[in-house]
Fold this sequence. Notes:
This protein has 147 residues and is of the alpha+beta class. Helices cover 48% and strands 15% of the residues. The chain contains seven helices and four strands. It has a two-stranded antiparallel sheet. A two-stranded antiparallel ribbon has the order 3-4. Helix 4 packs across helix 5 (79-91). It is globular. The two termini are 27 Å apart. 14% of the residues are buried.
Amino acid sequence: MTNMENVENNSARAADKWKEASLAGFQILPDVLLKKQADLGLSALDMLVLINILQFWWYRDKRPFPRATTLARRMGVTTRTIQRSLQTLTNRGLLRREKVTGDGKEKVEYDLEGLVERLRAYAIKDLDYLARIGMREVGDAARPLSN
Length: 147
């Protein structure tokens, strides 16, 4: 199955499950992010801030740049609450904030490579991942499921 077929399949499955709500857009999150929330040291608030940032990340090579005020308004919290959570995410190495200037305006972009790498490290040890690629974990090594 090609990547485009996979996207279309995911869209069709989301529409089937969520009906009209999916037409407003939906977010694909790796399960390992939810499974490892505690290991990543994320509070429920930090997780929700992160998910809201991820909602703006449409393409791998284009970093999201939602304003803290936008996130605060969506979540019904103060901008300061969002700023503290962003600092936590930064301190944990999950995101990096970078100020960029374009069109005469300064904005903050969020580099999520730290999150991607941390989740990758968890994923390659995850039993669901290993089952999907035809391997299972045995001690520190992986071996084919057929044995």
